[in-house]
Amino acid sequence: MVCKINPSNPPILCQFATRKPSYRIRTVAFASYNPDQQDQSSSTITTTQSRQSKADVYTANFKSLRACKLGIAKYPDFEYNAEGGKGNGTGATKITDGEFNEEISVSFDLKTLYIPPLTSATTKFLGLPLPPFLKIDVVPELFQGSINRESGQIDLEFVAKFWFSVGSIYKAPPLLVRTVLTSEESKGEMRSGRGERLDKEGNCRLVGVATVDPIDDVFMNTFLGLPTECLANLNAVISLS
Fold first, then answer.
1. Which pLDDT belongs to residue 30?
2. What's the superkingdom here (predicted)?
């Protein structure tokens, strides 16, 4: 459509669209900005993540002490001074639904794990030291399990080889011992013991009953009456950091 508005003035041509334009409506939300609040929120998130990462991983230290016992078959227990035993490991706990689980999975490094041998200097039988040339070396092959920091309960799977020798004259094949060293009760058919849970200072007593199978040595099989049971009663300190 074309029209003239005023003939006395220069003509102005105008054209009107006969079709209505379509409009797109956008909604804009406004929020107040507080830089202090944002910094505080970022700091809180960073701190929380840092705390979670630090609390999720632990360093575990193990030390064996005096007043330990070892028993096998129906023989009286050996009085064993395991002072000087040590080992380092790592522990980890899971975070479930934002909450920390107090049960920590621990694994000790075999390269750092040392258990003192049973000798005349460390062990007594019926109140008397072992014969001078008799020696029993303990070679760990596995030491791992769980520690509950809240209850103090400990359950550690322990696998080791015990090597009997008399100087350079005699050396028997190793006895394989596999047990769970626990702060609770360990009970077999012949042997039993009860441990003590981890206290605030890291002190604990771990016990474990194991079945010892026969080996390829007639003398040891006969002397110990293999297969039979053995009992480990270990006084120790375990720290987690």
1. 38
2. Eukaryota
